[in-house]
Amino acid sequence: MNRTFDNQQLDDIAKDYVKLVLAVGLHDASYVDAYYGPESWREACKLQPLPSLKLNVAALLDSLGALNFTGEGRCLLERQEFLSKQLASVEYYINHLLGSESCFSVESIGLYDTQAEIFSPESFQPVLDDIDSLLPGSGELTGRFDTYRAQFIVPEHKIPKVFSAAVEKSRELTSAYINLPEDESFRIEFVNDKVWSAYNWYQGDYQSLIQLNQDQPLYLERCMQLASHEGYPGHHLFNLLQERELVRKSHWPEYAIYPLYSPISFLSEGSANYGLSLIMSDCELIEFERDYLMPLAGMTGDIEHYHRVLRCYKQLVHLDNTVCQQLTDGEISPNEAESLLIQFGLYCASRAKQRVKFYQANRAYVINYNHGEDSVARWVERGGADKNERWKRFESLLKRPLMASQFVS
Predict the structure, then answer these.
(1) Residue pLDDT, tens place only, 392-406
(2) How many CA atoms lie within 13 A of 64 on its CB side?
(3) Measured between alpha carbons, how far is 166 from 124 in angstroms, rounded to an integer?
(4) What is the pLDDT of residues 18-54, one digit of tens each?
(5) pTM of the model
(6) 330 CB-contact burial (10 Å; exposed 0-12 / middle 13-18 / buried 19+)
(7) Which SS3 state, helix, strand or coil, does residue 292 take?
(8) Distance (Å, whole) CA 326 – CA 337
């Protein structure tokens, strides 16, 4: 069999996949999160009926399945599998746009190649009891938690300076382990009226726009969390490494586009969430916040105790999956979802309302944050506790992304 011909076919399928995703994006503006392929492909993209696009997906999957790279090296097989998973998710999303509805768990597999474990809201009660024991005062826990955290809100006029310092620190720590392009950079923009807290819009050419939503208060710990998640070693690094290693060096066009509701988001969000624990230990984080960010914010408080509370609070992250699953599957109303977040997630009312809007807009996407982080952590730390080795495994993961099902293989 002519392997050169098979390789060319794979390249052609990859190009058609990119153009297909661009075409689906004309039906949903949120679908294409980033694109840095040939501009002529975007310009040539025309609005096509969704049933026609669905037929195109089926034809590409058939062509992809007919290629046989057995014995030709793992590289080509992994590339074939990546395209197969991504195309299957495109097909699923087209069906969604055509009005097909499915439950949360089916959507999780169809779009993200995985399912997350769902816990009952009541199972989080022991964590709430631990937080209760750490907080001063008595009475309703959510209100006491909100009052306690208020001392660590960054004043609005201090946010640009404090958040910029956090991003610069995350870049400094990341660049000690990963060779960054000399011309990479980002800019920060402050926005309002969004369902998310922050967003990285990767622009191509190693540039990003990081938007920070100011609808909700910015707590001190969120500065480094968001800086590492949206910047380094999170979304900005993830995208620039794919552009440099896979699009520019390997000439694989399928990585020049990022469909948001697809399997690659599992790694994108999971690695971004994991990033902070990679660049800083708990002690290093507390020291940086105490000695640098708190003075910048004009803030005082017992940061060590605050982080004891936050370590408990993080154990509530999987409540996201529970509430979103119940809302998506029609088991509860939006108001009931807000109540669950307030009671078991310690959300204030306005933040609960914002989060429910996120669930309604993005549905099963929420599993990519906590389930993704857990999976990335297990994979990276499988190589041991040595920091250099963890960084090597993390970098290799971003350079050659795995699908969720590959994390357990």
Answers:
(1) 999 999 998 888 888
(2) 25
(3) 31
(4) 999 999 999 999 999 999 999 999 999 999 999 999 9
(5) 0.95
(6) exposed
(7) helix
(8) 8
